[in-house]
Specification:
BirA Bifunctional Protein, domain 2; five-stranded mixed sheet; nucleotide-binding; 3 domains; Rossmann fold; eight-stranded mixed sheet; alpha+beta; elongated
């Protein structure tokens, strides 16, 4: 058979570039129409293309009949649009959201600066061993953990305190105590999502390492209150519940419960309010706590008066002395109206050992805003000598929900100092010189070209620009530019080297 018939068949599929590029059909519909036309004109199957002189680049993609996908690797697979949403439980930060995030982080940093804390940071990817503990903590079931290509077990950190402990151990005697460190980092937990709870969030942590006295906890709560006040939140909006892990420890000692059960009991008790009291009691008994001790634990945890707790435990219990000292310091700091005693606060992480606290919205619409406490024995779980320490974690999600609820979100529109605009195309280079000079002086400058002047004025309004600087032929020849102050509508000319 001659090559002519083969070429004739293939000519049906040659792309007439100039003509088809203007067909107002979607690519999918165009392929269907093209396939139909080919079917009408070709009643027999195409022979092998090995003898054809047409290249693949010259052949349009042909749609397959319904239900028959193109063979894999054929080069004719239809490119599907990817899912444009981020993974479930995560967020994008377009400019308006990024402005809010940066503003909030700046509040975190400013409060930390006021209290003379230093900023540190850690990798988001950590060793899995840092976060695998055996107290039944919920967090250990929520890890984004996997084996890397080197066979190492790693995890996207679910919290920050173990990373801080690791760095303290690494620094060793090269740093002098006490340490006052803060960080703002991203955390990951695969958990059920609710309002203010996602699978990733950013968290502000403040920690004091090397101070055993209760003043350290009082300093941390002072930082939290200062932040609330800076954000416009009052003590009528938010309260801070305070207790001590030593309260629960004293109750267990009263009923001769082994010390080894302490961390596990704390984790179970932290579920009060999340599951029913009966379920908590059942879990406690399953852990080996006697029914009499379970009853005593539940009764003590219902107390909201420090005087009543002292009547139950006695005045010589360490927990009572710590809490009295803390509430006395709160009076001196001036935030006593923010705090209340609540024996049910134990926090869900096994490493807490002393005073614990958490902030809550008084209307009860949201989960805990932040929480923390003392963890004097965390470093020994990593094989190091213990150092007294306490700290807190403050997430970004719940506080933003609260600010929305209270109408306290700031207006954070885009802000630009100057817009530079050449009135003639041949002045683009000169406009670039003006913009570059202003940027060297620290101005935020948007250089706009190829637009009508009417659009430029609207754009200046959108970005809250302070000035519009017009580069025109007549002005430039005199070494000048025209300046419009957009807030006052004042307009004047100035020398280029005097433009500030």
């Amino acid at each position: 058979m001659s090559a002519f018939p083969v070429l004739q068949h293939h000519l049906l599929f040659l792309r007439p570039r100039l003509h088809l590029s203007f067909i107002p059909f979607s690519p999918r519909l165009r392929r269907r129409l093209f396939f139909s036309a080919a079917s009408v004109q070709c009643s027999s199957s195409l022979p092998s293309s090995s003898s054809s002189t047409a290249s693949r680049d010259d052949i349009d993609e042909v749609a397959e009949p319904p239900g028959v996908p193109p063979p894999p690797g054929s080069g004719r697979e239809t490119q599907q649009l990817i899912d444009v949403n981020p993974p479930r439980g995560t967020r994008d930060f377009p400019p308006e959201d990024m402005r809010l995030r940066n503003w909030l982080f700046q509040q975190f940093r400013e409060v930390s600066r006021i209290l003379s804390f230093e900023e540190v940071d850690f990798p988001v990817l950590e060793s899995e061993a840092l976060f695998i503990r055996k107290a039944g903590e919920e967090i250990t079931q929520q890890l984004y953990n996997f084996e890397d290509k080197g066979g190492r077990r790693v995890v996207l950190r679910p919290e920050i305190t173990p990373s801080l402990a690791r760095l303290v151990i690494k620094q060793g005697k090269s740093v002098s105590l006490p340490l006052k460190w803060f960080t703002i980092g991203q955390c990951w937990r695969y958990e059920r999502m609710t309002r203010g709870r996602r699978r990733e969030h950013y968290q502000w942590n403040m920690d004091i390492i090397g101070v055993s006295r209760v003043r350290a906890e009082a300093e941390l709560v002072n930082a939290i209150v200062l932040l609330f006040e800076r954000l416009g939140i009052t003590s009528s909006d938010v309260g801070i519940r305070v207790s001590s892990r030593k309260v629960l420890q004293a109750v267990l000692q009263m009923y001769a419960i082994p010390e080894r059960l302490f961390a596990e009991v704390c984790v179970i008790v932290d579920k009060l309010g999340k599951i029913t009291k009966e379920e908590v009691e059942k879990e406690l008994m399953s852990a080996g706590v006697t029914s009499e001790a379970v009853k005593g634990i539940v009764e003590v945890l219902s107390l909201t008066s420090l005087d009543k707790l002292e009547a139950v435990l006695g005045s010589d219990v360490e927990a009572i002395a710590d809490l009295k000292k803390f509430f006395s310091l709160a009076e001196h700091y001036g935030y006593s109206q923010w705090i209340t005693f609540d024996a049910s606060v134990v926090r869900g992480l096994a490493y807490y050992t002393g005073i614990v606290f958490e902030a809550f919205d008084r209307e009860g619409k949201l989960r805990a805003i932040c929480g923390g406490g003392r963890y004097d024995q965390l470093l020994s779980t990593f094989g190091s000598d213990d150092i007294p320490a306490c700290g807190f974690g403050f997430g970004d999600a719940v506080i933003v929900e609260l600010l929305k609820e209270k109408g306290l979100l700031p207006d954070l529109g885009r802000q630009v100092d100057d817009i530079v605009f050449p009135l003639d195309e041949e002045l683009e280079g000169q406009a670039s010189m003006v913009a570059s000079a202003l940027r060297r002086k620290g101005h935020s400058v948007d250089l706009v070209e190829d637009k009508r002047l009417k659009w430029v004025f609207k754009h200046a309004e959108r970005v809250n620009a302070s000035r519009l600087i017009l580069v025109g032929n007549s002005e430039w020849q005199r070494g000048m530019v025209r300046v419009k102050v957009l807030s006052t509508r004042e307009e004047y000319e100035t020398k280029i080297d005097e433009l500030n």
